[in-house]
Request: fold
Amino acid sequence: MTIITHNRRRSRLSTLIDQPGGVSVGTALKRAHVNLAEYEARSRQVIEEQVSALAAMTPPSGPDEASAALDKAYGRSSAVIDAAGPFEMRDICTAAANLCDLIDAAPEDQAFDWRIVTVHAQALRLLLTLPTEADDARAQVLESLKDVLKAKVPGAKD
Amino acid sequence: MRGMNGVGETLRESAVFNFDGAMTMVIDDSPFAMELTAQALLGFGIKVRHTCADAAEAIKILQNHPVDLILVDCEMPGMSGYEFVRWLRRSGLDPNAYAPVIMTAAHVRRSKVSEARDCGANFLITKPFSAGVLLERIVWVAKDNRPFLEVGDYFGPDRRFREEPWPGPERRSEEIRKAEFEAQRRGSIDL
Reply:
């Protein structure tokens, strides 16, 4: 197979970052955290909206609608991760990623067990209401979701 | 964290970077995710110059405006992030075709893993990620000086990160030819 190598080139960005001035990593991260903190309440609202929408989803009436419905559920679950990502809500992200994994692994020639979506929506709601110090309860919720993944997707990662 | 050509090396708190004037583009179909990314970048001193809700909007801008850094969401309706990066690398636009590209994803579908590797992006970050990880990756792609390769369908930075020799027998034809040439040359010198 032919390989064409283009010479290494220095990006303009690499020149810019070494210019005099700028901010230290410590300051940059502090500023980023301050900026993001203003969005934490909105983030929670977005997560709650997406979880409610997931919970309200009804199973598709036929195979023709199945793919679109799964894509929608996948999109909502991804939106939960998008919103929770910067705010240390790792359990929320893990639960949502679990649902994404299950939808992604769903065989196209078989009907998807829609209870999976409902169970994840309920679990996400529970995680949102649990007090921050309820580590054991959170771990238990995530463990039960992981069991669903293991049962439905042979060879799923631990 | 594993060090791989600088990847995973934690940045020193006192290290200073200047992103003033960097033309940055963020492409994301989710307005909220876009806002979160823009706010984190603003903290680093990066003012996002172009925010695009889809790849088509980004393509129009890239035809006429040089860009120094692109952050693009993987999953978008219409042209996906993977398809966008593939287009960019083959666009022939100079310097944009070689711009550092960081892809972001809430989740990567199993069917898209190879697409993520082969589309030509410099880096893929999966969420959740902290502001620290984002900054570290931006600095890393800024300093990423891997050559660009055209191999079959692939056009992008050299995907071979590791510099240690492969423990098995060499299978790359150009390396085999090089080794043969070197052996012949050494033989000639011995004579």
